[in-house]
Amino acid sequence: MQLEKADDVKRLAEEINTKASLGLDLSKVIFLRSQHSKTTAIARTLGLPPQWRYVFGEDKIYIIEVISEKFDKLTCHQKIYVVVHELLHIPSGMKGGLRNHTYREFRNIRKIIKEKGLDEICW
């Protein structure tokens, strides 16, 4: 597996965070793109254990990883959906925990995208 920074995903997440008023401090999130991963996921959000926070710096708490072979083929609208989904895993307190899929907002992603005008982000 190869990893690289995903600045394009970071910019998209910043725009989503602002327009949707999610209130997340994205300076605490590392955005990565992986290639040749064996996962079936398109993207995933991970909480960094304390040992890795020491390595990356105390201010980094989460990783959002997109799987290049799957994510890069998506349309802009699909990428927005995926990034919103991954951002919803991060609680507003940002202390290292993750929300699971039972969190009610996961059922409302399309509604959030429409109401907050996130489709307008596509260029």
TrEMBL record:
Q: Name one Pfam family in it.
A: PhageMetallopep
Name the source's superkingdom.
Archaea
- Locate the Putative phage metallopeptidase domain: which residues? 2-111
**Protein name as it appears in the record:** Metallopeptidase
Source organism (scientific name): Acidianus brierleyi
In the record, what lineage is assigned to the organism producing the protein? Archaea, Thermoproteota, Thermoprotei, Sulfolobales, Sulfolobaceae
